[in-house]
Amino acid sequence: xxxxxxxxxxxxxxxxxxxxxxxxxxxxxxxxxxxxxxxxxxxxxxxxxxxxxxxxxxxxxxxxxxxxxxxxxxxxxxxxxxxxxxxxxxxxxxxxxxxxxxxxxxxxxxxxxxxxxxxxxxxxxxxxxxxxxxxxxxxxxxxxxxxxxxxxxxxxxxxxxxxxxxxxxxxxxxxxxxxxxxxxxxxxxxxxxxxxxxxxxxxxxxxxxxxxxxxxxxxxxxxxxxxxxxxxxxxxxxxxxxxxxxxxxxxxxxxxxxxxxxxxxxxxxxxxxxxxxxxxxxxxxxxxxxxxxxxxxxxxxxxxxxxxxxxxxxxxxxxxxxxxxxxxxxxxxxxxxxxxxxxxxxxxxxxxxxxxxxxxxxxxxxxxxxxxxxxxxxxxxxxxxxxxxxxxxxxxxxxxxxxxxxxxxxxxxxxxxxxxxxxxxxxxxxxxxxxxxxxxxxxxxxxxxxxxxxxxxxxxxxxxxxxxxxxxxxxxxxxxxxxxxxxxxxxxxxxxxxxxxxxxxxxxxxxxxxxxxxxxxxxxxxxxxxxxxxxxxxxxxxxxxxxxxxxxxxxxxxxxxxxxxxxxxxxxxxxxxxxxxxxxxxxxxxxxxxxxxxxxxxxxxxxxxxxxxxxxxxxxxxxxxxxxxxxxxxxxxxxxxxxxxxxxxxxxxxxxxxxxxxxxxxxxxxxxxxxxxxxxxxxxxxxxxxxxxxxxxxxxxxxxxxxxxxxxxxxxxxxxxxxxxxxxxxxxxxxxxxxxxxxxxxxxxxxxxxxxxxxxxx
Length: 762
Ligand SMILES: Nc1nc2c(c(=O)[nH]1)N[C@H]1C(S)=C(S)[C@@H](COP(=O)(O)OP(=O)(O)OC[C@H]3O[C@@H](n4cnc5c(=O)[nH]c(N)nc54)[C@H](O)[C@@H]3O)O[C@H]1N2
Ligand SMILES: Nc1nc2c(c(=O)[nH]1)N[C@H]1C(S)=C(S)[C@@H](COP(=O)(O)OP(=O)(O)OC[C@H]3O[C@@H](n4cnc5c(=O)[nH]c(N)nc54)[C@H](O)[C@@H]3O)O[C@H]1N2
Ligand code: SF4
Ligand SMILES: [Mo]
Hints:
By secondary structure, the chain is α/β, with parallel strands linked by helices. It folds into five domains: 7-55, ADC-like domains (N-terminal domain of TfIIb), CATH 2.20.25; 66-133 and 321-485, Rossmann fold, CATH 3.40.50; 137-315, 3-Layer(aba) Sandwich (Dimethylsulfoxide Reductase, domain 2), CATH 3.40.228; 557-682, Barwin-like endoglucanases (Beta Barrel), CATH 2.40.40; 686-762, no CATH class. It is 28% helix and 19% strand. The two termini are 33 Å apart.
């Protein structure tokens, strides 16, 4: 039951962009339900969305600005940021500073960050965690369509006769879309589902066909279909496709799939005009990510299966506002409003519109390169906003080292205990979901409102406000004089119509005159919304206006070898979100898969038993994980989740081991393909410790912290002698009560419970 008034807002997790109805039931508690009127979910929510109410507590929030760990006033913190950035630029030039931002920012925050950096700091060194996520899709779209355009909409899921999931574990990562898909198949039982993924995922459960391809070979697979089905065989793209994939046998061998399965897929695609291909990180996060995207688009364009009801290539966005970040151009190689660095007049247009004194004139550094430049001290000041690169970047140990050695690290964050926050000199508390207010754009180009329904936590402020305050202190008060997110939205919407007249499909100038009240009440709205002229749901009907791009197949940069014979694949689990800052609070969400693990095909186990510890080694690092023997793994490749951090399980951090090879066009790192080896890790002892207080994950050699309804469970193991460790651990816990201990050296079992005033202390 909701206590009125309830607020309609949007889920802060994935790019499906579900509408949520929230009603505060106390200072930090809220009832959460799906919004029946929202076109993304029509009232549905997944496990993460429905547990949102359990993640709103103030535990762990960053509540006050800090400099070097000491609490300071906002004025002092903002002055310090402005002064340090100004001094660094004065001494070393504008390219010695950078921002690293996030697809979890609202469009208004994102717009502010991009304007501040490119127009005023005078550098294009602003990149986003979207580099690790969407940049290959962006690059592929631009090559095929001339602009970063997603041609399809969610309704196509209900209209398609053949749905293909490529490198997308939709059942876990875009669950409401998967539910929509299953419901559509129930309504129209003939609809086929094909999954293309090296491992058998939860998304395969409802599939008619699973192609467990050899990791990294998607281009060859789609090239084969293109070569077989393209009407015009003379184009350069078709020639390139036929070179890698001339026939069924060669392609099946190269991709490591059964000939019968591949020919089944070919036959279904050939026979089905309404074919829809959803793709995600198995495509983008690859050293051939951009070519994978274009190989998929090529097939749809060459066969006319695009821009029509139920047909098209469809890039699923990861974060809630991955799309919004692209709209405002907040990646180092983009400009605001889908304008382009190399188009005559575009940079000047923005310079004039912003009244920008220091407009950057060329693209800046992409994430991997940007952190390397911090490492070698080319970049001396960085401002991180709403992301956790110390965990989520590949070769994460060197990213941490880079930050540790950097003169000035500023972070705007919602949480106090977070691996990157630990490394920052200046910490700025940001509003979180439920408090902040603005817009986000989902995978199908629908702009929705996120609305606040809770008071700010402590002294937290909106991300756009923090940026505008620093800009004002650096001398640009006039250009950053916004009083509300509505004002920023109008400025952004107006920009998209500048010198446009249909030249750029991204145009929302029709929303530029929304009053504050209109903005407050704005319903989900799909772009484009030009001030004048036609708006359309789908683009490039039957492929008209789209280009075929040659995509010669190539192997990943680093391939398995004698030292590192297995391929490490990484990704997500159903109930955790990235670095667990929110989902890690909810016992319900931690119950599904409570510890970091490595999925291994039984043939590759080499002495590692189910449920035991396994050590993984790569060139750049190692991890110790719980082994799960899974016949659904493709032999030769192992899978680890990306989520565990220093806060939750230091030895479970996988990104120390993940290589930072990048796609040459998009700069997106190859997060799904690192050569590794595995071996058993045999601790002297293992056990668990339940405690009301969280004791910290560096308690012992291996520790994973798991929230439960009554206490924190510390799953622990070590190689020191059990007896001494047992006593050490017991004495770590400050206690006025008495220990009841039970030790049986013969069986090696040790138990202890703390009793205080006759009550068991957990
Ligand atoms: N539960 C949950 N949901 C999320 C998120 C989360 O953290 N947790 N994060 C959100 C974000 S930001 C993103 S980007 C999306 C990501 O959503 P997805 O891309 O669906 O998720 P991943 O698990 O990263 O990877 C997808 C699949 O790619 C496969 N894969 C690996 N290599 C290859 C290959 O060479 N070819 C092919 N075809 N497949 C391959 C992997 O086996 C994996 O199953 O999820 C969003 N939704
Ligand atoms: N190995 C491997 N690594 C990966 C991936 C993979 O598949 N495999 N996937 C990559 C992808 S696709 C992604 S998207 C990234 C995600 O990686 P990150 O972006 O690093 O992960 P998050 O935990 O989502 O970090 C978001 C942070 O923002 C904070 N926050 C939340 N809301 C706000 C706000 O409104 N304002 C501010 N200032 N802070 C806020 C949260 O507390 C949290 O600390 O990881 C990438 N890394
Ligand atoms: S599908 Fe995505 S947007 Fe929808 S409730 Fe789940 S996490 Fe939130
Ligand atoms: Mo992502």
